Every structure is written in structure tokens, then in C-alpha cells.
Amino acid sequence: NNCFLGVAFCLCTTTGLFATGRRPIFVCMSIGAYRYVIVGSGFLGSVVAERIATQLRQPVLVLEKRNHIGGNCHSAVHAGTGIEYHTYGTHIFHTSNEKVWKYINQFTTFNSYRHQVLTTWRGRVYQLPINLETINSFYGINLRPYEVDSFLQQEVQKSNVPPGDSMEAYAIRLMGRPLYEAFIEGYTQKQWQAHPSTLPASLINRLPFRKNYDESYYHSRYQGIPLHGYTAIFEKMLQHPLINVRLQTDFFAVRQQLHSDALIVYSGPVDRLFDYCYGPLRWRTLRFEQEVVPYEDYQGTSVMNYAEAAIPYTRIHEPRHLHPERNYTRQQSLIIREYPATAGAADEPFYPIPDAANQELVLRYRALAEQTPNLLVAGRLGDYRYYDMHETIARALELFETRILPQYA
Ligand code: UDP
Fold first, then answer.
1. Which helix (H) or strand (E) holds 52?
2. Which residues pair with 47 in a beta bridge?
3. 188: Cβ below 6 Å to ligand 1?
4. Does the beta carbon of 117 lie inside 6 Å of ligand 1?
5. Are strands 333-342 and 283-293 parallel, antiparallel or unpaired?
6. Is the separation of the CB atoms in 318 and 118 below 8 Å?
7. Which one-letter DSSP state was computed for residue 229?
């Protein structure tokens, strides 16, 4: 009986891997035989699976609900134009963490792309993060770097700064009301469907503010786009013969068939794992709309933000700019408009909403996870934290080294 199940399972796995363009791997183990089960094949799940296979040398089952590996970091080649794009929005790999950099370079090399973002407000293009160029062109002045502080202080004094530590208060204290209203207020309202006065300042801490002409988005020591896309990284991580990836398989549908002593590493939404017993966490999601335009270059950069609340999308991605080393078609370009939305039950959650109510809820779910034997919950959705890719990889390595290796080696 087990063997029959195993064969059926192998066929299923093989089909799944063909769909990702990978070599099929024949691992004839029934689903109930695995002692290591990973839920989700984004960076959290894929790194942990890779570590278990290569360091513990144990068979590991990866359950992936979608029809592709890589979670929200998945990349694909657009059929019409041949341009590689990031399925869930532009992902720039950047880190100053030596360990993460060394780890990821086992699976890819990176191109020399350096991220730069621009923003459009009232039909004009400005540099982002807000820097001296943004300030000077916004006000029509020509400040020098050593004049910026006193200029902004005067702007802040005129601004009637709201009390408290909301994102709005933080931003107005930092840049004064006019810059805040132009570049932060509308964009944030679209992105979070909440006014910055109700959001924590931590959401915007990740957006630098510069008083010189530095227009680089990140100051990480290492930065780039994987030379062959993100999906190729996940293929390489998961191609170990001890790793069995099962696509289009919902953990909740097969949970009862798993080995009762299996270690489950769960990287999905933590509230779903516990059947929303304390109530649902709130999430933001994104919707993407692709268009092929008859220009080699539509907007001159990979990401153009749209600051005004009246424009329904937050940004337009033009992925050809992510790979300057490639010879893409000169006749067309692919552009992708990004629309934020509140995540319903059927939507993919993208962003946790770190307001007080959600934070309190997630602490209760975390406590529940800690009390559950043979269960580890982590990742952007599992931890309900706004991780970047390098932070997720660091979290996965730490999880393996501190919670899996010592107990199961
Ligand atoms: N933000 C903004 N204006 C912009 C870009 C970002 O006000 O033009 C704020 C906004 O609140 C956003 C946060 O900064 O949620 C972080 O932006 P980032 O682009 O880092 O977010 P991500 O790329 O992760 O969506």
C-alpha cells in the first residue's frame, strides 16, 4: 500500500518539477514517511530544506501550495518579450551580512545592478529616496548640503507637527509638511490603505532620507539581481536528491497523512496554521497588471513610484532595466503596474500590518507555536514581520543552526 502511494507521489512530484523546468527527481517515499516537512518554498522553506538535505543528510518533503517554487521571490520570463520579470514585484537582493552573501553565492552569481527609484508627483519626476536633488527641485532652490538642516528646521517649525510617534509625526519632524504631503502621505495611504497618522514610523524607517545627492536606494555592501533570475536559485537549492518538492499541494489538505513525529517547518501565515483561533491577522496584498508597450524603454528606470493618492497604482515596474547585461528586444518593453489591496481570504498575503492590534495578536500566535511540539514557524508570513530577502535567509540559517541542528543531528 505504502509503495503504491509512493509511486503515485513520485509521478505527482515529477510532473511538478517538469512544470518548473527542472530535471525530475525520483524519490520514492510516501508522504507519511518524511520526518522533515517544510511548508512553503520561498526563501525560508527552501534554505531550511537545503540545510536539512545537505547538513543532516535526511530526506525532506517540501509542500508548496502554488504551481511554482520560490514564493513571492519567483521570477519568470515573459513569453511575448523574453524579458525576465519578478512575478510579485521587483526584488533587489541586497545585504551586508557576510554569512548570507556567502550562502546565497553557492546558488547564483549576481549582476552589477544598483537600485535607484524615482517618484512622479504632479507630472514631474523626482529622485527617491528624498535627497538634496529632490529637495532642491521640489522647492526650486539650490541649497548646499550644509544648508539643508537649517532649511528643514524652518520647514518643520511651520509644519504644526502632530504629537506622538506615528509615521506622520516622524516624517513631518524629519522633512517638514510639504515634502511629507507630496511624497509620503498619498503613497502610504495607497500602500497601506491607512493614513500615516495611524501607522507606525517603523514602516518608513526603511526608506532613507538624504541631505546630499546620493541617489542609491540601498547602502548594503552587496547588491544585485541574480544573473539567471530568482527561480534558478530555488531550483538549485531544491535539486538535492533528498529533497522532494510537491507543488500544488496544500499542507492543510494533506496534514493528516504526515508522520505524527515529523518536524514541521511552517512558513505560511501563522493565523491560518491555528485556524484563526484568536482571530485573523490583517495583511496587505498586491495585484499586478502587465502591459507590453511599443518602446524599447518606457520609463528609463526599473521602478517609478506614483506619489499621488488619486493615481490608483503605487508604482510601475519595467523589468528590462534589472538586467542591463542582457540583450533584450529593442521593439518592445514590458511594464507592470502595482496595485495594493487589502488581502481577503483567497488572496496571497504580502505585507504584515504592524499596528498595535496585530502585534498583540501575533504574540499570542507565537506563544501557541512555541508550545506545539515538532513545529517551527518562521518567515515573513510565519513571523508576521516585514523581512527583506536577506533577512529571511538569515532567519532560516539561524533556525536551522539553533533549533534543528542541535536537536536532530
Ligand atoms: N514610501 C513613501 N513614498 C514612496 C515610497 C515609499 O511614502 O514613494 C513609504 C511607504 O509608507 C512604504 C514605505 O515607505 O510603505 C516603504 O517603502 P518601500 O519601497 O521600502 O517598500 P517595499 O518596496 O517593501 O514595498
1. none
2. none
3. yes
4. no
5. antiparallel
6. no
7. -
